[in-house]
Design a protein that fits this description.
There is one protein chain. The chain contains twelve helices and 27 strands. With 641 residues, the protein is α+β, with helices and mostly antiparallel strands. Helix 1 packs parallel to helix 4. The protein is elongated and about 110 Å long. The N terminus is likely disordered.
């Protein structure tokens, strides 16, 4: 029997090969034939497909009948060890592997070897040979840089142990146009022939790993859903009367919905007359008239509605937290359509959301789509919408009932206000957006006067400006007095903490004042609560203001919470504490509560208690203390954290 590490030699020219001889040679030398095909195939196929293709080529090399040796088998080299069956199979495998390695010509019909193998077929697994060492990896890289004929020449010399003459004859028999050039290039790849017998290049000893399970399951579900859809549609179309079953005149479930189609038609948009708000029972966004110099541009409105229904890859979509970004539920109301700076802007209102569509004034495929939730808006909350942002400036579209608009810097509570001009459509001049840098040199807010009074609003990066108020929970009022403006001067630079959070209103409330120990002056305690349009996600900050600072110095945040009812209508109280150092260098635990608190106590590394809602207990630097209080009915409450 032929040794496994020595290739069978060539058969004599007069030999002939029948199917039985070839089958015996295939069974005996199958691992060597598969390894030969694997080494000649291009590494670009990937290790999984390369291994399966090598097995496929070796199995397809079996002839269907007797083959004349004169036509297919090269002459022998010596008189011993002749195996015409193996030599014939090797030639067929080599020819097929070179065809698979040849560049694909898309103008011609591809050869069978260039197509993925039909058999063997593996589902759900990736198969590949065992990994070798650094030498095998280096050899693999060198072979990948060779052409198919050069790799074949290298393998015939190293794996089959053929001399140069035999290699040239084998390459010519396999259809190589220039076998000498291929042999010369193979000679330049080194002579590490012993590595060709390593496990790195053995496609008969394979490792198995799963494919991408998530992608496989997703594709399986998609294929099943598509198959089910085809079956259902075919069954419905085969029914009498076009698929109208027991539901009478009702269309099938896949019929086009007329209401949805009407919502995307510019002619179906809701339009409100200019002075309808004066007699409307509701003063909110539903009473806004349709305005803008492009309100009659049907093509623009159709594009805006189409992008709203199915935004493409070039559309930048943003939505405030908790705001659905889906298509219109019905025909929306058109609020505005016009040119703002370098953009064309369209504003819609559908009862739940305000939607802003913007595209370049000069055309182009890029567009922006912004969603903001505005359900339950009252007159003050529907005074204005952001209609454009350019270079750090913002323009507002004001409601028709807004009489005057002034600009105020919250950090200068005693500063004057500046009137803000508006166009006939209600679009304001550009206003510098509030400074969100760490320096916080200024913070612009707008005072809007309508029939209900003057409301202070500011931009927090969303379509709807946030309303700023002061006062205890349940009884907040507009920021109109000097004390309220002074309080907001300390709080304004903390507003970036609630920016782009879907905020509807922010209330800054001074719940206590306290005389500091060692005659260090009086301090103030503030609770700032940001309410959202969606109801959840509120944010609460407790501030501690010491004397002697600038009027615009932000308070020290001593506690913060999210989704907490503290300082709100459901829990209209506040309790907070801080570790404070006096000018004399002594440390104290200070605490304060709102009017509902009747006693305070601290435990831990600083202990003490008091009757009332103010507490000062001596402590050490870095002391950890737990603060609690009691209400009038004896209920224990903890501090804001």
């Amino acid at each position: 029997m032929q040794p496994q590490d020595v290739a069978p030699r060539h058969a004599p020219r007069s030999a002939s090969v029948d199917a039985e001889q070839a089958e015996a040679a295939l069974v005996e030398h199958y691992p060597r034939l598969v390894r030969l095909a694997y080494l000649v195939l291009p590494p670009s196929l990937g290790r999984h497909r390369r291994a399966l293709t090598a097995h496929s080529l070796a199995q397809r090399s079996l002839p269907r009948g007797r083959v004349a040796g004169d036509d297919c088998v090269p002459p022998p080299r010596r008189a011993d060890g002749r195996d015409p069956g193996y030599v014939y199979l090797r030639g067929r495998v080599l020819t097929a592997a070179l065809e698979a390695a040849a560049p694909r010509r898309w103008t011609a019909w591809p050869k069978r070897a260039q197509l993925p193998p039909v058999l063997p077929l593996v589902w759900g697994l990736r198969l590949f040979p065992r990994c070798g060492g650094a030498d095998e990896l280096a050899l693999e890289q060198r072979l990948s840089g060779l052409s198919g004929p050069a790799r074949a020449a290298y393998v015939l010399r190293g794996l089959e142990r053929l001399d140069d003459g035999e290699v040239l004859r084998a390459l010519r028999a396999a259809g190589v146009a220039d076998p000498k050039a291929a042999l010369a290039r193979a000679a330049g790849a080194g002579a590490q022939f012993e590595l060709l017998a390593s496990a790195e290049f053995d496609p008969c000893a394979l490792q198995a790993r799963p494919t991408d399970l998530v992608r496989r399951r997703r594709r399986t579900r998609a294929a099943l859903a598509a198959t089910a859809a085809v079956v259902v549609c075919g069954a419905l179309l085969a029914l009498p009367d076009g698929g109208l079953g027991g539901d009478g005149a009702a269309g099938p479930s896949y019929a086009r919905n007329a209401v949805s189609e009407q919502a995307l038609q510019p002619a179906g948009l809701g339009r409100v007359a200019a002075f309808a708000w004066k007699t409307s029972a509701r003063i909110d966004f539903s009473a806004w008239p349709t305005r803008g110099d492009r309100a009659g541009d049907t093509a623009l409105l159709r594009r805006a509605l189409a992008v709203w229904a199915r935004p493409g890859d070039t559309v930048q979509v943003s939505a405030t937290p908790g705001t659905p970004a889906g298509p219109p539920m019905g025909a929306p109301q058109l609020l505005y359509a016009g040119t703002v700076d370098d953009a064309v802007v369209v504003l819609f209102y559908d009862g739940l959301r305000v939607v802003r569509y913007a595209e370049s004034k000069d055309g182009g495929a890029a567009a922006a789509l912004d969603f903001a939730r505005v359900d339950g808006a009252d007159e003050a909350a529907s005074d204005a919408l952001v209609v454009g942002r350019t270079d750090g400036n913002v323009r507002y579209l004001t409601a028709p009932w807004v009489r005057n608009v002034d600009v105020r810097d919250l950090l200068t509570p005693k500063g004057v206000t500046l009137p803000l001009r508006r166009t006939a459509d209600g679009v304001t001049d550009p206003v510098r957006s509030p400074d969100t840098s760490r320096s916080c040199a200024s913070w612009n807010a707008l005072t809007m006067q309508d029939g209900a009074g003057k409301h202070l609003v500011t931009d927090l990066g969303e379509l709807t400006p946030a309303r700023l108020v002061s006062g205890p929970p349940g009884r907040p009022h507009d920021v109109t007095g000097a004390a309220d403006r002074a309080s907001w001067a300390h709080t304004a630079c903390l507003l970036p903490a609630v920016r782009s959070h879907g905020v509807r209103a922010v209330n800054s409330w001074q719940f206590a004042t306290q005389q500091l120990p060692e005659a260090n002056g009086g301090a103030a305690w503030l609770c700032t609560r940001a309410e959202t349009w969606r109801g959840t996600g509120s944010r609460v900050l407790a501030e501690f203001l010491t004397p002697g600072g600038k009027p615009s110095a932000p308070g020290a945040v001593v506690a913060r919470a999210e989704d907490s009812p503290a300082c709100g209508t459901r829990q209209p109280r506040a309790l907070a504490g801080v570790l404070w150092k006096s000018r004399g260098g002594h440390w104290y635990v200070l605490a304060a509560g709102s009017r509902q608190i009747t006693s305070l106590a601290t435990t831990g590394e600083a202990t003490g208690s008091t009757v009332g809602r103010l507490l000062a207990v001596p402590a050490k630097q870095g002391a950890q203390a737990q603060l609690s209080g009691r209400l009038v009915d004896g209920t224990r409450v903890t501090s804001l954290r």
